[in-house]
Amino acid sequence: MTKRTGYLEVIAGPMFCGKTEELIRQVKRAVIGKKRVQVFKHTLDKRYGSERKLYSHAGITFDSDLVSGAAELLKLVRPDTEIVAIDEAQWFGETLVPVVGKLLEKGYHVLVAGLAMTFDRQPFTPVPALMALSDRVTKLSAVCSICGADAVYHKRVTAKGPKVDPLKADPGFVSKMDASVFQARCRDCYRKK
Ligand SMILES: [Zn+2]
């Protein structure tokens, strides 16, 4: 086997910007191109029922492996895999950064989708760090739920549910991360109710 060179693409943006659709689109293209692909997501993310599939808000799906953290992900990556895709990377926390580094050293093409910011506009570890060391960043915007402009933020619009530290995500809260709790907002509308 010839030596491969690692490559990292990060697909980042707020909720409802189509990150998972873009990840699935690229994975499906790779599969058509006869590439060997493995797709992972975190056990925290059970929003849409079935655990072994990626589900986008738009209802597009793709089979995935469910892992409890970055160390387990690293163990499950097969030597003959060419592309490692990771959805909702924010649930993995900072341990994902060195694991992605190891995958890149081994020559894998790594595709990571995740939230770059929390609902209170703070950097959401580890996505910003992964963006910094990536070869390519695809930054997507959503559509503002108030005015229809491009939205780079998502805002929590209900006081219901636990006041969660987004860096220590609570599974009960993650399961409620949908349009009844969060809305996409542009810069101008972020402060509106
Ligand atoms: Zn707006």
UniProtKB/TrEMBL annotation:
Highest rank taxon of the organism: Bacteria
Family statement: Belongs to the thymidine kinase family.
An annotated Gene Ontology molecular function: thymidine kinase activity
The protein's enzyme class: transferase
Binding site for ATP: 13-20, 87-90
Provenance organism: Candidatus Gottesmanbacteria bacterium RBG_16_52_11
GO terms under biological process: DNA biosynthetic process; thymidine metabolic process
Annotated GO CC locations: cytoplasm
Compartments, as annotated in UniProt: Cytoplasm
A Pfam family that the UniProt record links to this protein: TK
Protein name per the record: Thymidine kinase
Stored Gene3D superfamilies: 3.30.60.20, P-loop containing nucleotide triphosphate hydrolases
Subunit-level organization: Homotetramer.
Residues bound to Zn(2+): 144, 147, 186, 189
Matches recorded under InterPro entries: P-loop_NTPase, Thymidine_kinase
EC number of this enzyme: 2.7.1.21
Active site positions, chain numbering: 88 (proton acceptor)
Record field: catalytic activity: thymidine + ATP = dTMP + ADP + H(+)
Keywords, in A-Z order: ATP-binding, Cytoplasm, DNA synthesis, Kinase, Metal-binding, Nucleotide-binding, Transferase, Zinc
HAMAP family: Thymidine_kinase
